[in-house]
Amino acid sequence: MTVKTTVFGYPKIGPQRELKKALEQYWSGKISQRKLIDEAEKLIIYNAKTIAQYEVDIIPSNDFSLYDFILDLSVMFNVIPERFRKIEDPLERYFAIARGSADAPASEMTKWFNTNYHYIVPEIEYGTEFELIENKALKEYELLKNNLNLKTKPVIVGPFTYLYCAKLKDYAYFLDRIASVYMGVLKELEESDVEEVQIDEPAMVIDLDNNDTQAIIDCYRKITSGLSKIKLYVQTYYESLSQYEKIVYELPVHGIGFDFVDGKENLENISKFGFPKDKTLIAGVVSGRDPWKTDFKEALKIIETLTKFTENIILSNSCPLMHLPVTVKNESLPEEILCLLSFANERLDELAVLKTAINEGKAPSEQNLSMKFTNPEVKKKISQIDENALCRKPSFSERYEKQMEILKLPVFPTTTIGSFPQTPEIRKARADYKAGRISLEEYESFIKDEIKKAIEIQQEIGLDVLVHGEFERTDMVEFFAERLQGFAITKNGWVQSYGSRCVRPPIIYGDVWRESPLTLKETLYAQSLTEKPVKGILTGPVTILQWSYPRKNVSKKEVAYQIALALKEEVVELEKAGIKIVQIDEPAFREGMPLKKAKVDEYFDWAIKSFKIVTSSVKAETQIHTHMCYSEFNDIIDKIYAMDADVISIEASRSKGEILKAFEKFKYDRGIGVGVYDIHSPRVPSTEEMIEIVKRAVKLIDKRLFWINPDCGLKTRAWQETIPSLKNMVKVAEIMRKEA
Ligand code: GLN
Ligand code: ZN
């Protein structure tokens, strides 16, 4: 038997974050639109060339996006919200939908499945007409054909996943209507001699009922009815395919792809139901999401099992490679860690090794993949956790009353989420310090000055609960990872989070513990400057885990508990030093939720307990806040409630108060601030529009529990928009207090 290889979802940002740089230069008016497009095309060509160098047989195209690949589809299909239609320039309009314009708020942005990638939610409703106005897949196919003489496989997100991303429920209705534009895209590709196309359908891993499954199959029948020879491969990932038997046998496509890294049940299903003779199986055997080298023996074992059921196998990555940095080359981590790692380019190499192993019967060389970074002290502490004793006392209402008395806060207290603008000066000071151009003392005194300025500004704006501003943090996870034991930080391991924003996920390679204080110095300094309460801000255990690369062979639960124990020590010290409010940010709380319903309860059990490990030992007088954003929270309000935080700040502005619907059903009787403005957009929100959200909310939430805050941290903003925005926000509170 011989196999071929393919890949998909290669990182879009470029080896040196070229895309980020070009986008930001364009947005700030430093380069022209032509130049931006040139840069993008250079990257598309460079990426394809790189993939080709690794002897991948089927090279993808249309893997690239200037901002987001779901937004790309919306624009292709003319799903453009009315408020943006008057912007004539197509690219300006594209960015306006993503980022907002002076008079039109951006479309909602939310997390892509259980990852930290964010996409722009298509605004589709009954009556939306889909129309193919542009074929981006064809354009990128031709770009590579003309420049590299390569015949590639265009990759496009499929109709079901696109509609799932639009958060629609009535799939049958919309699938029926969207089929024709997909057929249009594919027909044009076919007419341009494209031989094969990959259609990504990760949404096929969520629990599907019979009706939805039938609607999907009908939609694909409709799409393919207009095609003659083009081969379609449907790719699923992040979990195992749902409704395996029906989909695999009835979906009218040439091949189906499976994730064998995060979808363990796929192999069981194949063993149980077999695999159709007339289809090709794309076997995702090298991970697109975790950074650990593929265990060749394990991968070959999976492939061997598959060969019992089919001869037609193409090897591939398990899910888009965009969740990995470009390469481990040039990273200077300790050798014992480095030798275990494999990023996107190394995955391409691994696929070549596996292909040779199968096609030429050449066994891969022996690997030593053992990880031995353990600490018996940590293990002991974990074993001593009493899961049933993680309970704050007394009850919330008693606690809250005490807290508010001590804190002397008015009704509708105002606060922010923690970070203030990370200005070019701050970034420069940090770079200077890292490069040794300034000393630690100089750097720390610079940060102190920034904290002082931020406290003065907040007092002048009239906020009630202040923050120190997080100027010492590059990133809310990286900062903690740098200070905790068990984490490794890469130099250039960037992955895209949304648009031009990239993060460098730390790598958890060993047991986690806290050797010295994490946030104490800056928080106490800020508190020393003001009479008003300053809240300490920590990133929570689930988020630190979720936004890091997970450890291999240690359960997520155990790692979360280890991080939680370390954070608990910090909270206890903050409290001892007189800090009265501590906020534990958990923006990734929902993101960690498994895609299959059957696995959800187990996840929330340990996720909630990790939060409680951090918070449950504080005094009743100490107020615990948490913060969450840019996810779907409506169906997990009960889980959030179970975390037993005194106050939660939660994003509500970009999803247009969707979260409020949840409070119609669930009585949330704890402190809550629904974010009143979208911090991802540079526009200054008016008092009127913020008041509207607050007024809607207080119909459902007790006034005495209501807080007023932006929907997330302000680090990506500039002071010139932050100050007027917050002033308008404080006015909201003043007006509400008068009315109360
Ligand atoms: N405290 C963090 C900040 O203000 C929270 C960021 C987040 O939720 N992503 O930046
Ligand atoms: Zn946030």
Write structural notes for this entry.
The protein has 740 residues and is α/β, with parallel strands linked by helices. The chain folds into two domains: 4-360, Alpha-Beta Barrel (TIM Barrel), CATH 3.20.20; 398-739, TIM Barrel (Alpha-Beta Barrel). Helices cover 42% and strands 12% of the residues. The protein has an eight-stranded parallel sheet with strand order 1-10-9-8-7-6-5-2. Helix 8 (210-225) links the parallel strand 6 and strand 7 (231-235). Helix 6 (159-165) crosses helix 7 (171-191), helix 7 runs parallel beside helix 8 and helix 16 runs antiparallel to helix 17. It is globular. The mean pLDDT is 96. Residues 417, 587, 627, 629, 712-713 line the site of zinc ion.
